[in-house]
Write a structure and sequence with these properties.
Keywords: Arginine metabolism, Hydrolase, Manganese, Metal-binding. Belongs to the arginase family. This is Arginase. By secondary structure, this protein is of the alpha/beta class. It has a single domain, classed as Arginase, Chain A (3-Layer(aba) Sandwich), CATH 3.40.800. It is 34% helix and 18% strand. The chain contains 10 helices and 8 strands. The chain has an 8-stranded parallel sheet with strand order 2-1-3-8-7-4-5-6, with helices on both faces. Helix 3 runs parallel beside helix 4 and helix 7 crosses helix 8. The longest helix is centred in the first third of the chain and has 20 residues. The mean pLDDT is 93.
Length: 300
């Protein structure tokens, strides 16, 4: 396997500055060595060119776009990233996108789903299924799934939709923080949602295996989205939206080991590492370890 590393250093999708340094922090934490220890070849394509958020107007949007911020900039990142991801897959590589905030997932999904049917497993504390009118904050890192799945509010926004991704092939793992409107929308959808309560009751093995079964049913491959706030903030402090009660260190590693064993990984992203909020680059280091497990590293 050849993994192509693509950095997407954005902080357009949330209010906490610093997450744009996530790709650098993950690389500095030893990503290349971690992938080598998993037995895969890594090619680093560098970072997308992303203008600084401070130089842009977050409110430059059309009235029909609700209160979503930085949509023009996110469109540019999505277009560039989706092209790079699609080209990587076409070359027989597995793209690994380093965020940046979770809005980069729109580009990852769109690129991975170009000319293919894909599923997605969403390891996250949050649902990321808000829309430009339901989002309390207007931050697009809480909207990537609604955008990629073509929610009605994104009609006509051609740069956001991932045509090869369907709700019935999307599975959440570890939800524990949802807005009221988002909770209702997820319940009404055809997505499968496993909360932290499900992990408590059933165990991480059962839940992740079930999620992978949902995601890979009848598709060409699976996209894995790993938001570092999925983990408990006691072990992953460097995230912008921490939520207590997340998965443990070993639960997270075992989940990624199950991803590798499924042998269906088409593309992956790891997002929301914010070194400004981190402690001794701990969260970035953990991200590299989990990526290695997802690509096949084992204890023995």
């Amino acid at each position: 396997m050849t993994v192509r590393i693509i950095g997407a250093p954005t902080d357009y999708g949330q209010d906490r500055r610093g997450v744009d340094m996530g790709p650098s922090a993950i690389r500095y934490a030893g990503l290349s060595d971690a992938l080598a220890s998993a037995g895969v070849d890594a090619v680093d394509a560098g970072d997308l060119t992303v203008p600084r958020a401070e130089e842009r107007d977050p409110d430059a949007r059309q009235p029909s776009q609700g209160n979503a911020k930085f949509l023009e900039e996110i469109e540019g990142v999505t277009t560039a990233l989706s092209g790079d991801v699609a080209d990587s897959v076409a070359a027989g590589e597995t793209p690994l996108v380093l965020g940046g905030d979770h809005s980069v997932a729109i580009g990852s999904l769109r690129g991975s789903a170009r000319d293919a049917e894909i599923g997605a497993v969403w390891f996250d504390a949050h649902g990321d299924y808000n829309t430009p009118t339901t989002s309390p904050s207007g931050n697009v890192h809480g909207m990537p799934l609604s955008a990629a799945l073509g929610h009605a509010e994104w009609d006509g926004v051609d740069w956001a939709n991932a045509p090869g991704l369907r709700e019935e092939n999307v599975a959440y793992v570890g939800l524990r923080a949802l807005d009221d409107s988002e909770r209702e929308a997820i319940r009404a959808s055809e997505m499968t949602a496993y909360t932290m309560s499900d992990i408590d009751e059933r165990g991480v093995t059962d839940v992740v295996e079930a999620a992978l079964s949902v995601a890979r049913d009848g598709v060409d491959g699976v996209h894995v989205s790993l938001d570092m706030d999925w983990l408990d903030p006691t072990i992953a402090p460097g995230v912008g939206t921490p939520v207590r009660g997340g998965v443990t260190y070993r639960e997270a590693h075992h989940a990624m080991e199950l991803v590798a064993e499924a042998d269906a990984l088409r593309s992956m992203e790891v997002v929301e590492v914010n070194p400004v909020l981190d402690e001794s680059n701990e969260t970035a280091s953990l991200a590299t370890e989990l990526v290695a497990s997802a690509f096949g590293k084992r204890i023995l």
